[in-house]
Amino acid sequence: MSRHRSVRNRQYSYDYDDDYYDEEEDLASSYDENAHRLQLQREREELERRRGEEQRRREEGEARGRAEEELVASVTSMGFARAAVERALADTHARLSKPGSFGDAGDPAFQERLLERLTDGAGGEADGAGGAAGGASRGASGLSVLVASGPAGPAALPFSSSPPRKGGWADPPRGGPAAAAGTPPKRSSVVDLFSPAAPPPAQARPAQALPAPPPSKRSSLPAKGSHVLFGASALDAADDAASSGLSRLSLIVLGHVDHGKSTLAGRLLYARKKVDERTLRKHEQSCAAIGKASFQFAWVMDTAEGERERGVTMEVGTAQVDTERHKLTLLDAPGHQDFVPQVIAGLSCADAAVLVVSAKTLTDSNQGEFERGFIRDGQTTEHVLLGKGLGINQIVVAVNKMDQAMEGERGFSRARFEEICRTMTPYLAKKGFNVAKKVQFIPVSGLTGENVETVSPGCPLSSWYSGPTLLQAIDALTPTPKDREKSMRAIVTDAYAERSGVAARVRVVRGELRIGETVAIMPMGDVATVGRIVVPSTGAIGTSSDAKRLVVLPGDAAELYLPNVDVARVARGFVLTHSREDLRISVRRRFTAKIIVLDNIGTPIIKGSELVMHMTAMECPVVLYKLVKTFKGKEVLAERPRILTSGSTAEVKVVTKRGLCVETFKEARALGRFVLRRGTQTVAMGVIDTLLADDGKAEAANAA
Ligand SMILES: Nc1nc2c(ncn2[C@@H]2O[C@H](COP(=O)(O)OP(=O)(O)OP(=O)(O)O)[C@@H](O)[C@H]2O)c(=O)[nH]1
C-alpha cells in the first residue's frame, strides 16, 4: 500500500503497513493540532468581536456616568450633600438586577428608587448650608421636575432631551451651579438616559419617609476596560499611594494552564474585600448554569465572555487591590502557550511574580498537574524563563490546589508540597534566581481559600505548616524603584478610533503623564494634547478641568483620548513621550544586545538568523547580523563565534525590520529588554546595551 495515500481514502484500505500507521498517526495528530489552532483562531476572532461589544457597553457606561455626574452636580448645587447623592446613585445601581447596564436607566423602577434615595439620603446628610431636602415630585418627563426645597427655594433639575454622546470622551459636566442660581433649566443628556418614557405622576415625598440608605454593596472591582465613575474621590485614587503610606507594586500571576491563576487572583481580591458576596454568588450561579461550577473566583478576573465560556484566560487581566503594605496592581496572565506574547506584554510591566503551580495529584496517571507544567514545553518552565529574562527577580511560588494534593484520603499533603519545593528550588537557582532571599514557597488553595489570608483551625495544613500566608509573602516583596523623575514614556497597548481622534490604552513605564500634556506619538512623531484620562484600575477619570489633579504614574495603565489623531498612525508598542524634541524616545533599527540562549532550542542560532523580537506589546522581525562574542561572567569564551548553542550567553548586533522605539536597559527597563522567538518557540532573551546609528557603525547618542 502506498505510503502517500490520502487519509480520506484510508477507510477503504485494509492492508496498512507499519509505516502507514505511523503516517496516519502523524497526520491525525497534525489534524488535531490544526483543528486546535483553527479553534483558537475562531476564539480569538470571537474575542475580538466581544471586545468590540464590551467597548460599546463601556462607552454607554461612560455616557451614563457623565449623565450621573451632571445629576450629582445639579443636585449638589441644590443643597444636597455630594456624598449622599453619590451613595444614593450607587445604592440604586446595586439594587437593580443589571447594575451598570445602560438599559436599566430608562426603567421606571430605577427612577423611582433614585428619587427615593436622593430625597431620603440627601435629607439626612445635607450639609449645613443646604439644609434638609424638602421633597420631590415627578411630572410628565420623569425626573425632569424633581424639586427640592432648601434655603434657595424650589429648583428644577437641568435635564434635556438631546441625545447622549456615544463618544465616551466628553466635555466636563455642566449645569449644576446654574440651576442653583435659578437660571432656567438647561437641557442636557440626562433625560435620554433616565426617561425615555413618561412615567406616571408622583406625589412629593417627605424626606423622613424612608430609612437612611445602606452603604453601597457594589463591587469596586473594575471589569477589564470598565471603570467606576463617581467623581472626586476616584480622581484622587490615582495618586494616593504615597499619602496612604503604601508602596506601589505590580504583581503578575504566572503559571501553566489551569493551575489556578485566575482563581487565586480572584480569591486574593475577595480576601481584601474587593469583591463582595453578592457578586460572587452571582458568578457561582452563572458558572453552574454553563457547567463550570468552581470557576466563580476565576470569573472575577476572567471578565471576557469568551474566556468564561472556555474557562481559559486569553488576555492579561488587571485589578487594583491594597494589601497591608502595597497598592497592588494584579496582572493575571494567560497560561496557554498560544498566549505567550500577552504574557511578555504583562511581564514588561511587572515588579514581581506569583508563580502558581498545581499540587493536585491525579489518580489516573502517575504524573500530577505539577509535573505536566514542569516539562520542557510546559508553561511553568517557560514562564520562569520569560520572567527571568524580562527582569523579574522576586517570585512567590504558590503551590496551589493543596486541597487536592492527596495523601490517602486527605488533601494538603506535606510530602507533596515538599516534593514540589525540592524540584523547583534547584531549577530556579539554575535559572539565576536567588532562592534563599528572593523566592518563597507557599502552600495554598485558591478554591477553598486556605492560607491565602489565614488557615482554618480544622485544616490539615495547620498541623504541619506555620509559615507565612500568601498575602504575607506578597507583603514581603519589594517594589522596584520607579523612575518618576525621568522624562515620560508610556507604551501603547491598544488603540482605536474615537470621534475625531484616537482612544489609546497606555502603560506608563517612566515619568508622569498628565491631562492637557502635549505628547509625541512615537515612532510616527505625531503630536497631540491629552484630552481625557481614565485609569481603569482605580476608577479615576479626569478631563481637562482636572488638569492638575490626575497624574498617571509609572506602573499605571490608563486610557487616553488623543484628539485629531489618525488611528492608522497609532499602534501597539508605540510610545508616548513629551513632545519636546530632546525628550522624545529614540527610534532605532540597530542596537547591540546581550542575550541568553535558552536550553533545548534545537537548531542553534547562527549569524544572520531571522527571529521575531517581542518587546512590550509589539513584535517585529529581526536579524542577528553579527555575533560579537560569547562570554561567561566577565570571561570572554569566543570572539565572533559562528553559532550560539543552547545555554550560551552572547553579545550580538541586531537589525530590526522597521524603526522601533527602544531604549537601553539602563535607561528604561521595560523598553530595553526583549524576547526572541522562532515560530512558537522562545529561543533567547536579552537586554539592549547600546543604540546604533543606521549605518551600524557610528554609535548614536542614546536618548535623554
Ligand atoms: N480543587 C481545586 N481546584 C482549583 C483550585 N484553584 C483552581 N482550581 C480549579 O482549576 C480550574 C482552573 O482554574 P483557573 O483559575 O481558571 O486556572 P488558570 O490557571 O487561571 O487557567 P488559565 O488562565 O486558562 O491558564 C478551575 O476548575 C478551578 O476551579 C484549588 O485551589 N483547588
How does this model look, in words?
The chain starts with 17 loop residues before the first helix and ends in a 12-residue tail after the last strand. The longest helix is centred in the N-terminal third of the chain and has 60 residues, at 18-77. A hairpin with a 2-residue loop joins strand 9 and strand 10. It is globular and about 70 Å long. The strands form 6 sheets. An 8-stranded antiparallel sheet has the order 13-12-18-9-10-17-14-15. It has a 6-stranded mixed sheet with strand order 4-5-3-6-7-8, sandwiched between helices. It has a 6-stranded antiparallel beta barrel with strand order 19-25-22-21-26-27. Residues 1-25, 96-108, 119-240 and 700-704 have low confidence and may be disordered. 28% of the residues lie in helices and 24% in strands. The chain is α+β, with helices and mostly antiparallel strands and 704 residues long. It contains 17 helices and 27 strands. Helix 1 packs across helix 2 and helix 2 packs antiparallel against helix 3 (108-125). It binds guanosine-5'-triphosphate.
Helical stretch tally: 17
Number of strands: 27
Radius of gyration: 29 Å
Helix-and-strand structural type: alpha+beta
What portion of residues is helical?
25-40%
Distance linking N and C termini: 69 Å
Please mark out the parts with pLDDT under 50 across 5 or more consecutive residues, or reply none: 1-25, 96-108, 119-240, 700-704
Q: What share of the residues does DSSP label as strand, in percent?
A: 15-25%
Silhouette: globular
Mean pLDDT equals 72
Largest sheet: 8 strands, antiparallel
Question: Hetero groups bound?
Answer: guanosine-5'-triphosphate
In order across it, which strands form the biggest sheet?
13-12-18-9-10-17-14-15
Biased composition (Low complexity): 167-185
Family: Belongs to the TRAFAC class translation factor GTPase superfamily. Classic translation factor GTPase family. EF-Tu/EF-1A subfamily.
Biased composition (Gly residues): 121-137
Pfam family, one: GTP-eEF1A_C
